Amino acid sequence: MSSDYSLKSLxxxxxxxxxxxxxxxxxxxxxxxxxxxESAVESSESxxxxxxxxxxxxxxxxxxxxxxAKEQEKKIIISTGTKNLQDQLYFxxxxxxxxxxxxxxxxxxLKGRSNYxxxxxxxxxxxxxxxxxxxxxxxxxxVNHWSNVTVSGDLTQCPDLKDNDPLWGYVTSTNENCLGxxxxxxxxCYLVKARQKAIEADIVVxxxxxxxxxxxxxxxxxxELLPEADMVVADExxxxxxxAHGFYGHRLTSRQVNELCRDTEIEAMTTAKDDRQxxxxxxxxxxxxxxxxxxxxxxGKKINWLQLKINVRxxxxxxxxxxxxxxxxxxxxxxxxxxxxxxxxxRSVEILQSLVLFDDKELNQExxxxxxxxxxxxxxxxxxxxxxxxxxxxxxxxxxxxxxxTSATLSQARKFDHFKAQLGLNDAKELxxxxxxxxxxxxxxxxxxxxxxxxxSLYIEAWFNQILPLIEANSGxxxxxxxxYYALNKVRDLIEGRVDKSQLLVQGERPKNExxxxxxxxGDAVLLATSSFWEGVDVKGMALSLVVIDKLPFTAPxxxxxxxxxxxxxxxxxxxxxxxxxxxxxxxxxxxxxRLIRDQQDKGVLVLCDPRLVANNYGKEFLTSLxxxxxxxxxxxxxxxxxxxxx
Length: 647
Hints:
Blueprint: H1 7-10, H2 16-20, H3 28-42, E1 47-51, H4 57-71, E2 76-80, H5 83-101, E3 107-109, H6 119-128, H7 134-147, H8 168-171, H9 190-200, E4 203-207, H10 208-220, E5 231-234, H11 240-247, E6 250-253, H12 254-271, H13 276-295, E7 302-304, H14 310-315, H15 318-334, H16 339-359, E8 367-373, E9 378-384, H17 388-398, E10 402-407, H18 417-423, E11 429-433, H19 439-442, E12 443-446, H20 459-473, E13 478-481, H21 485-495, E14 504-506, H22 512-522, E15 526-529, E16 546-549, H23 560-571, H24 576-593, E17 604-608, H25 612-615, H26 619-625, E18 631-632, H27 635-644
Parallel strand pairs: 1-10, 1-11, 2-4, 2-5, 3-4, 5-10, 12-17, 12-18, 13-15, 13-16, 14-15, 16-17
Antiparallel strand pairs: 6-9, 7-8, 8-9
Helix pairs in contact: 3-4, 4-5, 10-11, 10-17, 12-13, 12-16, 13-15, 15-16, 20-21, 20-27, 23-24
């Protein structure tokens, strides 16, 4: 390394990082990770790094990345699993480390299109006044006021727009409805400005969805969203394979069709008032869409395409296809009247192409197709069973010489095989770094005795009877993590009246960020939650001293993608339970277990409530994958441990 400082000296207790950050401590694993990344940059190699909780992996990859940007003028892309981590990296970690090292390179934050205000659509909807509720109109006025003061146009910074607000679709653009350079507001477009800044920057912070969108665009020859990079760091990399399935397949949603209808209606009101048939065609498409949704039955389901009744499968798209064709012809006649109508015509053609693709009676043997039903809509999805070759090709086309894949949960039973196979990373190097935390003294792992098989109808009640005394003995906060909403709701019914109502927090009753904040503030709350709370939640101290996982998190076997992968592996003579379901469940379990000990002072109990951990041979693989925590099967020992925590 040609810089004035070695990585070892930078990370030492007398180094620049220790000077700049209060409480910074020298960690051997952190130095090992930083040096491995430096070596990967110098040799233009890729590396997979599992860094246990507390390693300090953010500093361990940002420091060598910044040095590479300064010393070798490398262009760096850092990709994260969530927008929250993206913001933390860009607004907190990158500036503070850059300052500490006196490395000042151009930085940019880039999010997906759906995060940026589209002033054209904002003004269109202000003019049309067509909303489903009064509150939507009120929120639109507030967003309009905010639009006069924002610099970035990043709607996640708008205090009046909640994550789940139905207004998002009215004030953002999509790939389909964006007018591009034909837009009258193009010169002031927030998305264009953000992308331009990213193209010119030395270090760009993105999320995995945007990284994959860029990789697929480059593969298809459609240009780029991100600059040509020399190095890509993927943090929370265990999420990449699942996200990749969405980018190497096809998807059509009722929302896309509804938005086309809504935009056509708005355009028709201003530039095609004389063509009444245009509005008639829109109504007919909306009718066909509703009819199709009715045919699909209950909401909240994922229906494998091959399990639909043959007559439903053959007729499902017929009426919608006919009515979208009629609308597309009508739009073709009016396309020259405005840029908006021309865009609507182009979108109608793209929707037609998707409908024709899905209406094709033959389904590729290497793909799986399913339909997801929502309360008022649906999505039709088709994805390849295996994305490893496509991802590997995209990576080669992307051009970056060094790729770093890191997470606290890349391995299963201390092997990277499953993660690497999913993404075609056969030649990537490997590094496993254990957590520096003292799990032997900080924690306890409890596997209760006497529980029935999790498939037994009495399981949840038996589980609850084992857990309630622990919650009562715990003076800190408790996380009850569930593998299904069914179990969560049943336990909520059982726990009400047994725990103070003000202490009980349940997923879905408030936005996730609000629930976590309330949990931290109370200090002794009980939170009931499912999969989205198993990762990316950081609560330190006594506010979280008990984490309970209801059972091993095997994916439901009727999940269409899992089901199709299982059948494919069987045809190849493999064992899908050992080759797919166990590795996936281990990753999820490690994420959930990782909520407990978050820093050097944390103490607490992890409870795994599944008798299969002890009764079945594969239980060893799960236990080997966890940190080295002292284990007990005695409820009395756990209660004593919890009671000592406050003393």
